[in-house]
What we know:
- The protein is mostly beta strands.
- The protein contains no helices and eleven strands.
- The protein has strands at residues 3-6, 9-12, 17-23, 31-38, 45-50, 57-59, 67-72, 77-82, 91-100, 111-114, 118-123.
- The strands form two sheets. Strands 2, 4, 5, 6, 9, 10 and 11 form a seven-stranded mixed beta sheet that branches.
- The protein is globular.
- The termini are far apart.
Amino acid sequence: VQLQAFGGGLVQAGGSLRLSCAASVHTFSSRGMGWFRQAPGKEREFVANISWKGGSTYYADSVKGRFTISRDNAKNTVYLQMNSLKPEDTAVYYCATTAPAAVVGREMALYDYWGQGTQVTVSS
């Protein structure tokens, strides 16, 4: 299983970015997906997740109402639309996948494969 995250960049506060994560696995449609982030000097933290069918999503309080996670199982891709970005959103963003048919949640231990990360920098 390989996950490739891209779409990061430099944006001004209040701007938007859309991250994508492409998965090279034939069981993508049966896997929950999550986004996490890690800011310099801080621990990696949960951002959002989506169930394998896409019918259930969950967000960290810090991004609720600003970020939207979605997936396209036909393209083996999960997205994170980030609006109204703030300087405190600056971090490396990682996508991750659960095992097939596994429970999806906010704990990193639930995810068995991780992408390499993409840098998001929000300037004030």
